Structure formats: C-alpha cells, structure tokens
Amino acid sequence: MDLKITFLGTGTSQGVPMIACPCRVCTSVNPRDNRLRSSVFIETENKKILIDAGPDFRYQMLRAEIKKLDAILLTHEHRDHIAGLDDVRGFNYFQEKPVELYAENRVIKEVENVFSYAFGEDKYPGAPDINLNPIENGEFLIGSLSVIPIRVSHYQLPIFGYRIGPFAYITDANGIDHTELEKLRNLDTLVLNALRPQPHISHFNLREALQVIAQVRPKRAYLTHVGHQMGLFEEIQPTLPSGVSLAWDGLVIHIH
Ligand SMILES: [Zn+2]
Ligand SMILES: [Zn+2]
Ligand SMILES: [Zn+2]
Fold first, then answer.
1. Across the chain, what does the average pLDDT equal?
2. Which range marks the domain in which residue 149 is found?
3. Which residues are within 5 Å of ligand 2 (an ion), measured at CB?
4. Ligand 3 centroid, distance to 78 Cα (angstroms)
C-alpha cells in the first residue's frame, strides 16, 4: 500500500506560538517551532482522508493546496479537533456532494450539537454538508480502504487513534492498554502525541511517548500535538532516539 502523509498541524490545543506568550519557543524564528493545531492528510491511490479538522482547518487546506477530500476521521470532540468543520463547504461546492465523516457516537452527537445549523430538519441553507458515519472499535471500510480504530484514553475520555495499513496516528492519548497496543505491531510509521517533558494529566509527556514507541517498535515515529514547553526543535531533536523525530508542519512522508 502506497501512502503519502502530510502533517498539516503538529501543535497542541493552543497552537505554537501561544497567544501572548513571550517564551523563546513562541518567539522562535525557526518555522519548525511554529505549529498549527494537529491534523494529518492521508493520500492513498484513490482516497484522500483527513484526521481531525481543528480551528486551523481552512488555512491548512489552503496552505497544503488540498483540492479534494473524501473523508474526515475524528479522534475526539475537543474543539482543537473539530472547530474547523464549517469550512468543508468549499469541498461540498466543488465536489458537489457531502463530505463523509467517521467518528464514534458520542463524538457525532457533539458535532451535531456544536454545528446544529448543519444537521436535522432545521438545516440552514448553505450550511456545511456532512454525512455522519458512526463507528465502533472495530475495522471499517472507506470504499475498499480498511481503517482500524485504536482505543486510547485521554485522561477519563476514551478516544480513537487510527491505523491504515502500516501507518498509525494517535493523538491526545495518555494511556493505551495492552490489547490496543497489539494493533500497533509491525508499523512502518507511528505518529504519537508528546506534549512536553513535564507530566500532564491528559497527554503523554515526552518520556511516556518514547516508552510507547520503544514497546511497539515502529520503523520510525513522529511526535505531534507538541506544546511550547517542549523546547526548541533544534535543541530537542538531537536528544531523541534514532528513528524518532518531532514532527513539524508541512512535513511530508511516503510509505511504500
Ligand atoms: Zn488536542
Ligand atoms: Zn510560549
Ligand atoms: Zn483533546
């Protein structure tokens, strides 16, 4: 399976720089220290799939010159992962059909609440056109493409990561149990969240993320959902084990 992965955003919920922050990461001139909210775009031979559509969705689509979108997978309902959904309207207009969205029931209900004008009998004219597809913790298909949800915990909230072939994407996790870890065997590339060196109640810190990577041993791993407290890219990157990298906005990887 040939996959092309584009990192559209690699930052934590506030993005980096964080508004009003004078720290040396937020004021860094290195583009790798600038992070929009976390999202990746996955291209297979015939599907174009986005994971999460946060508040930077519109700019991310424009910046990466994305002209086609078949489906959106949501990891969970926090605003830094869904706030941009209103802007699927451009794709509705030019593709002349709804965008397919996949998420578990709780997340779908929240999308319906937040974007109430886009769903139900009162759907407002010109509102985004989104087909809601509920999923559970089992393999599902987008066309003929197999997607495997991975159940992870985000403090007390159970959320999903996703595996497509030899690629897996997990964000906002701070726990993965043994059975779910088994779904991460034999990966080419794992993307995993790592907020900062210090502990956090609902996200893996750097040490915890590296422990998960050491357990499942993908060929390579990229860290995402990074906060300004992680430190400067050029200082942290050399300290990481071989095969592990901080992701950055605009990074493109190919998996064959
Ligand atoms: Zn988040
Ligand atoms: Zn800062
Ligand atoms: Zn979250």
1. 97
2. 3-255
3. 21, 23, 26, 228
4. 5
